[in-house]
Amino acid sequence: MKKKYRLVLVGDSVFAQVAYEYFTHDSAYEVVAFSVEAAFRKQPTLFNLPVVPFETLAQDYAPTEHHVFAAVVFTQFNRLRTRLYQQAKLKGYALASYVSSEAHVWADCELGEHCFICEATVVQPYARIGPNVVLWSGNYVGHHARVGANCFTLPHAIICANAEVGENCIVGANATIGAGVTVAADQLIEAGALVLATCGAEQQLEAGPQ
């Protein structure tokens, strides 16, 4: 695929390494660097590309010429990824999204900025996916379902038609959220769980320090 944009990946963990492969081989983005906050920078290069301090990123990688994607998992109930992507936006960077060429995302769904959608995922018509959402491999989001900002769903999670998942949720592998069910913000849906009743705000989990 012809490369049109230069991309900096924020992060150097396993997600950043996987994101590098996806963006490199299945997108219009050319990854040119990785970036982490200075206190967590433990290596000068990754895949023969520089790993640069996030605090000074704009000095060497101008916001006018580069996009950014925060390749961070659900640390601190997705707060870390959210903070980094918002800070990159404040620095003036355009935000990248990745939608696999092997995902089926209908044109009539709504997709927020800075999302990552892996292969074999289906997002049906009129679904709404908020910003900064990760849908891992084999996910299913039914028609008219809503996934709130900053969520992370693991492989083969199913969110049925008209269901609503609140912000910052983590949906485990092979979990199913039934049709019309509402899940409040900051919920952890365990792997393999079957959720057929609304998870209310009184059941919210502690998200940890930001």
Task: Give an account of the 3D structure.
- It is a single chain.
- Helix 1 (14-25) links the parallel strand 1 and strand 2 (29-36).
- This protein starts with a strand and ends in a 15-residue tail after the last strand.
- It has helices spanning 14-25, 57-60, 79-90, and strands spanning 5-10, 29-36, 45-46, 49-53, 67-70, 94-95, 98-99, 104-105, 110-111, 116-117, 122-123, 128-129, 134-135, 140-141, 146-147, 152-153, 158-159, 164-165, 170-171, 176-177, 182-183, 188-189, 194-195.
- It folds into two domains: 5-96, 3-Layer(aba) Sandwich (Rossmann fold); 97-196, Hexapeptide repeat proteins (UDP N-Acetylglucosamine Acyltransferase, domain 1, 3 Solenoid), CATH 2.160.10.10.
- It contains three helices and 23 strands.
- It has 210 residues and is an alpha/beta fold.
CATH topology of the largest domain: UDP N-Acetylglucosamine Acyltransferase, domain 1
Q: Identify the CATH homologous superfamily of the largest domain.
A: Hexapeptide repeat proteins
User: What would you call the shape?
Assistant: globular
Total number of β-strand segments?
Answer: 23
Straight-line N-to-C gap: 38 Å
Q: What is the count of helical runs?
A: 3
Give the rounded overall mean pLDDT: 94
Strand order of the largest sheet: 3-4-2-1-5-6
Major beta-sheet overview: 6 strands, mixed
